[in-house]
Amino acid sequence: MSILVFIEHDEGVVKKSSLEAVSYAAHLGDSVSAIAFGSNVQVDELQNVGKAGAQKVLHVADEKFNQGIIQAYASAIAEAKEKEGATIVVLAKSSLGDAVAARVAVKTSASLASNVVDLPDTSAGFKVKRSIYTGKAFAIVEMSGDNKVIAIKKNAVAVKEDGGQATVESFMPTIKDTDFNATITGTEKATGTILLPEAEIVVSGGRGLKGPENWGMIEALADTLGAATGCSKPVSDMEWRPHHEHVGQTGIKVSPNLYIAIGISGAIQHLAGVNSSKIIVVINKDGEAPFFKAADYGIVGDAFEVVPKLTEALKNS
Ligand code: FAD
After folding, report:
1. β-pair partners for 89
2. Is the CB of 253 within 6 Å of ligand 1?
3. Buried/exposed 235-255: b ≥16 CB within 10 Å, e otherwise
4. Rounded (5°) CA angle 248-254-258
5. End-to-end CA distance of the chain, in Å?
6. Whole-model pTM?
7. ipTM for this model
């Protein structure tokens, strides 16, 4: 089985979620190629994708592809799929991944499954397990047809590191003007060095922190852990924190290895954005706060006492 993986990178650094997608492909197929876009990613970075199991990386180094023009990416991926003789396209579930996946599926008449958490069951057909209802349930979906597009949920697959270096091959897809009908005229980077949807660790604060002036201790804990900062909806509604930090049903859905909720009650709408987290730690002064029911570890205590002590202890550990 030959598989093509779409690689996302952040200013030249290949995203961990894409390495997870490559690792998934390596477990599934015997021939794994990948495709990456942009002149701003270095060849040695792409060679290292081999460690996760890709034998080859097609590099579309034309500057025109530096920005995430979804239509152009989808056309190039469909062409690369044909060139590599791949039947399955694997990518990481993300806003870009989902948009690309849908277009590639249409262009290649493929079946599509997103938020996939496990290798397929191929004993009878091709059945994949999808995470649904914000991680509360799973759906087993039968994918039909030879061509398939599979988007992998973040943190669902361990990254393989035992492969060799991948061969990086320059690839220039046929460029159609219609692929560049929409152009991105400017981008603005969100505050914070670690992006919330990508974060391995998230430190999140709620209304229990009383005001924006108290966020220093949240940032100090996040810095110590190398974490992104998040918040509950009221906190962003009151403009204590920017809206892109709002976690929950109506905000960002996160699936980090560790989610630390501080002064957040644990309303169902907040939990809807965090219940795919591997480990949840709750710090709340009310032992009856609903969040404790969803927590792996909890500290009943005043955040203003607990958080600085925790940060200090972590710094000294
Ligand atoms: P509160 O409910 O006020 O809780 C504050 C917590 O802090 C309490 O548990 C309290 O015990 C604790 N606390 C107070 N002082 C301290 C202290 N010193 N130390 C430690 N703990 C302390 N909410 C979201 O977050 N995300 C969403 O996406 C979202 N979507 C929504 C969509 C809809 C349609 C609706 C109706 C609501 C939505 N909400 C969402 C709002 C949600 O219902 C809750 O109102 C909200 O999550 C509560 O935020 P909070 O926990 O920060 O505040």
Report:
1. 4, 149
2. no
3. bbeeebbeeebbbbeebbbbb
4. 115
5. 47
6. 0.80
7. 0.99
